[in-house]
From TrEMBL:
One Pfam family it belongs to: ADH_N
Name under which the protein is recorded: enoyl-[acyl-carrier-protein] reductase
Recorded family membership: Belongs to the zinc-containing alcohol dehydrogenase family. Quinone oxidoreductase subfamily.
SUPFAM superfamilies associated with the record: GroES-like (SSF50129), NAD(P)-binding Rossmann-fold domains (SSF51735)
Organism for this UniProt entry: Lutimaribacter saemankumensis
Length: 329
């Protein structure tokens, strides 16, 4: 089997490497999964760089939180899965062509789903759905503002908000993505060119937003907080800038604007089984409806991991970068 590892933090394209190991054998209640698709997310790159919030981690480490694979061996006592079943692994360390998982960590993929879209189903769409539903009581007609709106999470937020009758103001850095976001259902797109963002948001929305979604951090958090209604909430779910979140004391003290974090991995650690089933049922339904369709910019075999992470780190992309396993049918 092959898997990607990094032995030290640094530039992903420089520190990531592929190692080969003997094929593992599943133990009791375990299954062996041959990955066909693995996803690359910003959090993976930040983790390799040592800039992700979950640090410190034990090195060497294997990144990756999204995958689609096929069960090709089962251990004693496995009852829920059979050889040939398609699964969506839960957990991490998935940049490998072969995994050993407890059967409860290998839920079946939706029947007939496209492997690439299924691999992308859980992380970004799950975050988008939960930040819209679990934090602020939003009603049809309310406004939401977000930065990094051209990210996969951002585009899912736009689509889910539209379905719920919510309005969105979407901040991006490139004018050429505005048309795609409008097609997704964006009510307003603001190209960040160094202007007063709070004023631009106020001009774009007919009511002050109750919720802001921040994937950037640093001064971007301050701009979102300044645009919110009194007692509004900024949800920080990413840190693309690598800078600490900033808030204006006038917004925090005198208008009760709040900053709250969200991390999907932590949500899974604390959610009840019923909540997890509810989320997965929602995502499977949206996948079947085509709502979760995600653009893919390029695909690389696992052996070309350095090229893949370098591509994923570049600006100007119009879709996800995927890794492909050696066991594709």
């Amino acid at each position: 089997m092959k898997r990607a590892i990094f032995r030290q933090h640094g530039d992903p394209a420089k520190v990531i490497e592929i190692i080969e190991e003997d094929d593992p054998t599943p133990g009791p209640f375990e299954v062996r999964v041959r990955n066909q698709v693995m996803t690359i997310n910003p959090a993976d790159l930040l983790s390799i760089e040592g800039r992700y919030g979950a640090e410190p981690i034990t090195l060497p480490a294997t990144p990756g939180v999204g995958a689609y694979g096929i069960v090709d061996a089962v251990g004693e006592g496995v009852t829920r899965l059979s050889i040939g079943d398609a699964v969506l692994p839960v957990g991490g360390g998935f940049w490998a062509d072969t995994l050993i998982l407890h059967e409860r960590m290998a839920p079946k993929a939706p029947a007939g789903a496209d492997p690439e879209q299924a691999a992308l189903m859980r992380a970004n769409p799950g975050t988008a759905h939960l930040v819209l539903t679990d934090i602020v009581d939003l009603q049809p007609g309310d406004w939401v503002v977000q930065n990094a709106a051209n990210s996969n999470v951002g585009r899912m937020v736009i689509r889910f908000a539209r379905e719920r009758g919510l309005h969105t103001v979407n901040i991006v850095r490139r004018a050429d993505v505005a048309e795609a976001l409008t097609a997704d259902g964006a009510d307003a797109v603001i190209v960040d060119e160094g202007q007063d963002l709070a004023a631009a948001i106020a001009a774009a929305a007919d009511a002050a937003p109750k919720l802001a979604l921040d994937a950037v951090g640093g001064t971007a958090t301050r701009a979102l907080g300044g645009a919110l209604a009194d007692r509004g909430t900024v949800v920080a779910y990413g840190l693309l800038s690598g800078q600490p979140n900033e808030m204006d004391a006038r917004d925090v003290v005198f208008r009760d604007v709040r900053l709250q974090g969200f991390w999907l991995f932590d949500w899974y650690r604390t959610a009840t089984p019923d909540k997890m089933r509810e989320l997965h049922a929602f995502l499977e339904a949206k996948l079947a409806e085509g709502v979760l369709q995600t653009d893919v910019d390029a695909r690389y075999p696992l052996d070309q991991i350095k090229e893949a992470v370098a591509h994923a780190a570049r600006g100007g992309r119009n879709g996800k970068i995927l890794l492909k396993g050696d066991h594709n049918a």
